[in-house]
Amino acid sequence: MSLRIYGNRLLKTLSGEQTRPTAARVREAVFNVWQGSISGCRWLDLCAGAGTMSAEALCRGAVEVVAMEQSPRALAIIRENLQRVKQGDQTVEILRGDLMARLKSLQGRQFDRMYFDPPYASSLYQPVLAAIAQYELLAPDGEIAVEHRRDRLTIEPIPTLEILRERRYSNTTVTFIGLSDESLRELQKIK
Question: Does the keyword Glycosyltransferase belong to this entry (predicted)?
Answer without folding.
Answer: no
